[in-house]
Amino acid sequence: MAGTLCLAACAGAPSSQAPSTTDLLLQSGFQARPPVKPEHPSALPANQFIPVHRHGQTYYVYNDPVSGQLYFGNEAAYQPYKVKAAEARTAEAQQTASAQQSWSAFDWGMYEEAMGAGP
Q1: Is 31 helix (H, G, I), strand (E, B) or coil?
Q2: SS3 of residue 84 by DSSP
Q3: Which of 74, 25, 30 lies closest to 54 in space, CA to CA?
Q4: Distance CA 88, CA 1 (A)
Q5: Rounded to 5 degrees, what angle do the CA atoms 30, 36, 42 make?
Q6: Which of 15, 53, 59, 106 has a CA 20 to 30 Å removed from the CA of 7?
Q7: In the sheet that 49-54 helps form, which strands lie side by side, from edge to edge?
Q8: Which residues contact 67 (CB under 8 A, 6 or more apart)?
Q9: Cα 117 to the center of its chain, rounded Å
Q10: What is the pTM (predicted TM-score) of this model?
């Protein structure tokens, strides 16, 4: 019964999970591609942008070791990504601050013994 109530209540709750880096990359216009050779991801730094200068343009490659994909974008994709990533960090910081404020209002007195402050 309790599980059913939680499922019903939780199903309507909005997700507070921040978008992943790869979601932001795709939303910004980056293209995900599997590596041509299996050793390529291990040769590139993980979770970092690598600027590549080719044919008079700058491209950005992002190596995601979790998905095993390489993400490729140009300046037109990289600039919106930076904006979206900054917005996501700000939203996450605001959510954390809000949660911390609500935790401070919680009645922690009943847990004093567990925290070593009780009898």
Answers
A1: strand
A2: helix
A3: 74
A4: 37
A5: 85
A6: 106
A7: 31-33, 69-74, 57-64, 49-54
A8: 22, 32
A9: 37
A10: 0.66
Residues in contact with 47: Cβ distance below 8 Å, sequence separation at least 6, in sequence order: 21, 62, 63, 64, 65
Q: pLDDT per residue over 48-97, tens digit each?
A: 999 999 999 999 999 999 999 999 999 999 999 999 999 998 877 777 77
pLDDT of 107 reads: 75
Tokens 């949660």 sit at which residue?
Answer: 99
Find out whether 29 and 73 touch, Cβ atoms under 8 Å: yes
Four-point Cα dihedral 21, 23, 25, 27, nearest 10? -150
Q: Which of 52, 58, 67 lies closest to 21 in space, CA to CA?
A: 67
The Cα-based distances of 113 to 100, 104, 116, 118 in angstroms read 22, 18, 5, 4
